[in-house]
Design a protein that fits this description.
Mean pLDDT of chain A: 88
Largest interface: A-B, 47 and 47 residues
Number of domains of chain A: 5
Distance between the termini of chain A: 74 Å
CATH topology of the largest domain in chain A: Nucleotidyltransferase, domain 5
Radius of gyration of chain A: 26 Å
Number of strands of chain A: 30
Strand content of chain A: 25-35%
Strand order of the largest sheet of chain A: 8-15-14-13-16-18-17
Number of helices of chain A: 19
Oligomer: homodimer
Structural class of chain A: alpha/beta
Chain lengths: 640, 640
Amino acid sequence: MRKAFKVEFLPFRSTHSFARGTNLLDAIRKAGLPLKSTCGGKGTCGECLVRIEGGEARIRTSAALPEEVRRLGYALACQTEIEEDLTVELPRFEEQSIRTVAGSRFFEEHRDRISGVFEVNPVVRKIQVSVPAATLSDNSSDLRRLQRQIHKEKGLRCLQAEHRVLKKLAAAVREKEGEVTAILVKTGPGWTLVDLQPNPPSKNLCGLACDIGTTTVVCEIADLEDGRVLSTTTGFNQQLRCGEDVISRIDYARRPGRLQELQTLAVQTINALAEKSCREAGISSDDIYYVSVAGNTTMTHLLLGLDPRFIREEPYIPTMNLVPMVKASDLGLNVNPEARVHCAPAVGSYVGGDITAGLLSTPILRDAEKTSLFIDAGTNGELVIGNRDWLATCACSAGPAFEGGGTKCGLPAIEGAIEAVTISKSGDLAYRVIGGGKPKGLCGSGLVDLLAGLFVHGYLDRSGKLDQERAGKRLVRNGEGTGFLVEKAPRSYWGRDLILTEKDITNLIRTKGAIFSACALLLKNIGLTFDQLDAVYIAGGFGQHLDVDNAIRIGLLPDLDREKFHYLGNTSLSGAYLVLLSEKNRELVNAIAGKMTYIELNAEPGYMNEYTGSLFLPHTDIGLFPSVKKFLRPGKRLDD
Amino acid sequence: MRKAFKVEFLPFRSTHSFARGTNLLDAIRKAGLPLKSTCGGKGTCGECLVRIEGGEARIRTSAALPEEVRRLGYALACQTEIEEDLTVELPRFEEQSIRTVAGSRFFEEHRDRISGVFEVNPVVRKIQVSVPAATLSDNSSDLRRLQRQIHKEKGLRCLQAEHRVLKKLAAAVREKEGEVTAILVKTGPGWTLVDLQPNPPSKNLCGLACDIGTTTVVCEIADLEDGRVLSTTTGFNQQLRCGEDVISRIDYARRPGRLQELQTLAVQTINALAEKSCREAGISSDDIYYVSVAGNTTMTHLLLGLDPRFIREEPYIPTMNLVPMVKASDLGLNVNPEARVHCAPAVGSYVGGDITAGLLSTPILRDAEKTSLFIDAGTNGELVIGNRDWLATCACSAGPAFEGGGTKCGLPAIEGAIEAVTISKSGDLAYRVIGGGKPKGLCGSGLVDLLAGLFVHGYLDRSGKLDQERAGKRLVRNGEGTGFLVEKAPRSYWGRDLILTEKDITNLIRTKGAIFSACALLLKNIGLTFDQLDAVYIAGGFGQHLDVDNAIRIGLLPDLDREKFHYLGNTSLSGAYLVLLSEKNRELVNAIAGKMTYIELNAEPGYMNEYTGSLFLPHTDIGLFPSVKKFLRPGKRLDD
């Protein structure tokens, strides 16, 4: 019987030898490979998920590894022992990157001008009442006395009660002289009793706002009694291992069992981020009684386990736009089992709940006089033009370049990402890293700055080619082609050179080109020109701060008065949070979806022309960018 | 290693020897002991449930044996192997007795005079619509097009859809040119989509009416498209092994795990009966989209898994009277997982949903002029007096004697039960057995006939003692005391003498006494006398036909004009069925519960006096029974 076995680790292609019975997580640690695990190998956190690609391992069952995921070849490394030669795929390090911050500044900055209602009046309530004891003369049932008291003390009509709560009702109203805390959720015209707690309540009343993006997912915990954001956690969508964009995920889902896998991965992503958010916020996951999700149409379908295939087959029709309310326990979300899940409604297959929710956190819906443009540059780009009275929308396949996908040096706006770059005339490069420390890569705003800096200082020509002479010692050539050295190996987090390759640049230009050409075409379609826009609201995963000047220099944004631009960050998340806060916002976001006119760009004849023209810095039609044009004299660099 | 082991079977106290590894079901068959099994030992029907009282057996896990039941020591005999000496408790044969009949005659006989609405307009609908295909110009989602079509073709507003149905929506509307069958259930002001079927629909739309009694449970399948009853199945409540009456079940539930056991047994009882009903009706359990349950307050609590302890602690308050709607899948009922379960509401701890539902199937609520008495003599006796404008109710602890419990020769009205008895002057005894064949015992109506016959012909004195001389060769004495031989061993189903013991007689007299004294007291409380009653409606598990003359002779019913009496059979089941049939009935039964005045007999001063006076045949106050009195001359038998 052999005593040692070889294990090859993918995607690193490194092979190591281990004794029979070695724990796989220990083996990975010994091999010096990155794999997260926060439960100390107890099999409960579910973070050390790997896929066994070859060989058979002894895998202990674990509550953190659902059977349907195990069947697909996944295992928790900490629950696995090496008993023969194996090939094991580890998650890409990005899938493990998570950033949690306490609180949020968005509403301190924006609360006065959002469309959504900024009031704390959610559809879930925590109320304390004192239920009178039953007597032989008032022999009303426990439920009846509670309902009566809720109406008498709080004016709420509690018409229904969940089966789970009935089970603890008799005991609850007989403890502590009938002092109970009831959790109610609005359902139709009345309220439904979803939980009972002893008094004083041991639990908080919280909500989870979740922006489920194709690349990144953000979970935010809000206290539903005062509206405070308690914590925000960002991480990669674990579905990334099944494809980088919505189209590849839809294709992936076609094989048997794969739709279930994608649904499980979506839920696992949210559960992992929510767990961290809860820990940061100091609450229990059981305190979360309402979940507000905003995601594009494909992400929403996958979260609900709905076949997304017709989203990419003409005429591109989703199962539903307005999503019926579901219970968290039906989806497998690790929050209070009675929690309701609201998914922001879609307008169509390519304008989803991230956009309808996003609009809530812009002022667009408040004003009938002004006409605004809303740009959400996520993995898919979506645009909305309109005001309180009308809204038109379209989508474009932007690609995830500004969210950290599709480029070698890109990262979402997580800890370790460069969020701002300046290049001096002499070529010195300075940058700011989120959370400080050594850089892991660049997030969207950093990439925009870098690209603009390279263009302005003559490192790039208008077609995005590197000027090899000017780049000098920053020019890198390796097996993957030519690139610009952002930071040397010893000073980078991963100990590898941080390089912006020409391929990365091409991808970034394609992305900005797709967004700009879609703007131009949508305006043309409506019969407006850029200068008729009163405001431009920009959202997306760029990072905390997008430099609008730089975005205009590379031709991502139109060349308008700078004060018309407002960078709002992650509006999808903000919108999901606004839905948590107030019933009116839930009504509003549902109403928005019904009101928007969807324009299919692929059906527009001028589309390819517009797009091709946008594949230059800033554009082939330089007349569209007068503030950039004045620098563009022959033989002269922009920084001269 | 020993090769053979002794197994003692309880309650039979018979011990047999078996080889190691013998299957326990085979062993029971070899021992000639009765145990049902319909799946052929595959472990799927769950009928061969036994309890291992001593020793350890090897038990295979089985889907038909929930883990929580296994932990309590239960096993499926067919999945168990003998590996050491065992003591095994088999269910009492009655627990296995099941009777299934196709159709029901109740409504042919009673449809013109019930209070409930006899129309087929249930809260579940099956509709066929043709969903237009999506196009680039009509890009409404699948759900939207379906909702629009349902409204257009059927006028129904479908506002919600269950998560489970969303998963099959996209495929369903794209097959067969959009022809789909939708199942909708009324929820609040609108309808909820609970299922989709291809066209033509493969399934039926059925409902399950269930009378869950303390002793017997009846399940009835109705076609919800035309209202027809497809089959009716009667069996024992499997909770019987945990106690015969509600008080002993409530006490049983106090120990840890026992409440769960009782809930599981209730669900298993319904599932077993429903499965047989489905088979008889030729439908699938998945075709059942609505369940209407009527049971007393304790049975309803136990079915829902609610702690019943406060039902028997002063001031006797249940968790709830009006039961919130639950889903069948939440309870573990083996019907369509989206099926809604309606439980008929209670008035209080001792007047439950069996009575409110039962009133629907009487004419009491239709008339304001007449005052009627409703008697439901189940394991608990409940009485209602009133009319359309007012209703007063009370309960008495009757005991299960007329339902086959608490007597040695008693049986519910199942196949093999004697339902009618006549005794000639010369002492010849003739009887009719349900389903023909050899008798197993007597059901309520048979016991009433027998008791009255024995009394009228002088075999019993007024205190219920057997006249040993007159009984002659019918007199039996054995270890269990003195009794009257109803049928000799060879002519009885079980091959044992069928005997009515003096103890049985005492029990029957106590039961009839409790009911009669409660009637007298309730009337007194309201200020009425027996002769002011315009009608008496009698319900209960007596059997198909109750001989009113005989019931008056033994003092069970008051001595009024015979035409005032109407024997209605199982009104609880009929009421549950009426709730299935129409939304109005659901509203009506919920309204009844709120309207009834509950009178607590135990708090009445005259209670014990009334009861003691009723412990004679027919009563100590013979003046109350003039039609019986005229026969009661000294030295003269009633049949002289």
